[in-house]
């Protein structure tokens, strides 16, 4: 592991522990060259995943990109970071355990939509507006109508 401060290749692990949801190992490291301290995370990767975009273009799956898009939808919402991390980890586990190495971007988007709908309605609408490429106010109205129950109340699942 290279030191992010000096680029030295000699680092030592000072402490290791599982994350709260047991999906990664957190390692506290120290650089032998400069004495800099930093943290790394180690995750299990069952298989290499490739995302097939709507255009047919193929790109490697990037967990961090998925997490960033969820974080953007959740910005300034009263949801615990641990809940968001559990949702992202759950989506990644579903993708890896599907048995497929090529994943349609649409499938990932649908999994994110399901997860956000369960966590926060506002984040769900934010993500949907980008994911479904809303262009007019009526697109939002249609989504809100879809979310509403017979009495016009928002359905929480």
TrEMBL record:
GO biological process: negative regulation of DNA-templated transcription
Residues annotated as domain ATP-cone: 49-139
Keywords, alphabetical: ATP-binding, DNA-binding, Metal-binding, Nucleotide-binding, Repressor, Transcription, Transcription regulation, Zinc, Zinc-finger
A molecular-function term among this protein's GO annotations: zinc ion binding
Required cofactor names: Zn(2+)
Residue intervals of every unnamed zinc finger in the record: 3-34
Family annotation (Pfam families): ATP-cone, Zn_ribbon_NrdR
Cofactor note: Binds 1 zinc ion.
Taxonomy, superkingdom: Bacteria
HAMAP family (UniProt xref): NrdR (MF_00440)
Family matches, as PANTHER family: TRANSCRIPTIONAL REPRESSOR NRDR
Family: Belongs to the NrdR family.
Record function comment: Negatively regulates transcription of bacterial ribonucleotide reductase nrd genes and operons by binding to NrdR-boxes.
Record protein name field: Transcriptional repressor NrdR
Lineage: Bacteria, Pseudomonadati, Pseudomonadota, Alphaproteobacteria, Hyphomicrobiales
The gene coding this protein: nrdR
């Amino acid at each position: 592991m290279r030191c992010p401060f000096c680029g030295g290749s000699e680092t030592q692990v000072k402490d290791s522990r599982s994350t709260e949801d047991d999906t990664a190992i957190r390692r506290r490291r120290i650089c032998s060259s400069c004495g800099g301290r930093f943290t790394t995370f180690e995750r299990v990767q069952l298989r290499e995943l490739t995302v097939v975009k709507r255009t047919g273009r193929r790109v490697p799956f990037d967990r961090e990109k998925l997490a960033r898009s969820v974080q953007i939808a959740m910005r300034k919402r009263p949801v615990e970071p641990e809940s968001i991390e559990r949702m992202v980890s759950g989506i990644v586990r579903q993708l890896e355990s599907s048995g497929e190495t090529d994943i349609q971007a649409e499938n990932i988007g649908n999994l994110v939509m399901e997860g956000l709908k369960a966590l926060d309605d506002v984040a769900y609408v934010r993500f949907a507006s980008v994911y479904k490429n809303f262009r007019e106010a009526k697109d939002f109205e249609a989504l809100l109508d879809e979310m509403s129950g017979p009495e016009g109340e928002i359905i929480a699942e």
